[in-house]
Amino acid sequence: MKEFRYHAEVPKGFTGTCKVHVTNSMNHFKDGKHHSEICPAIQWNIDSEKVRQEWRYEGRTYGKDNDFTVESWKEFVASLKAVVA
Fold first, then answer.
1. Beta bridge partners of residue 55, listed in sequence order
2. Which of 9, 17, 31, 53 is least enclosed by beta carbons within 10 angstroms?
């Protein structure tokens, strides 16, 4: 997994998972946009008990924190894909 100190260091068009140290966040990207089909695209570890999440697909935010579970997110993504197909 790639690691960066600042978000601005993430290369344009980056695809993959990376950690950004200044925000203590795990980030999933596809073609430079926050994107995940299986988990939150961004997860900030605020402290040992608090985690913030953003659920994003193709760069668009569809939910925050507890708006989805991993299973309900996968179902939602499948419904998005069905609309496009």
1. 63
2. 31
**Domain of 25, in residue numbers:** 2-84
Domains contained in the chain, number = 1
* Alpha carbons 58 and 22: distance in angstroms, whole number: 24
Q: Which pLDDT tens digits describe the chain residue by residue (85 residues)?
A: 999 999 999 999 999 999 999 999 999 999 999 999 999 999 999 887 889 999 999 999 999 999 999 999 999 999 999 987 6
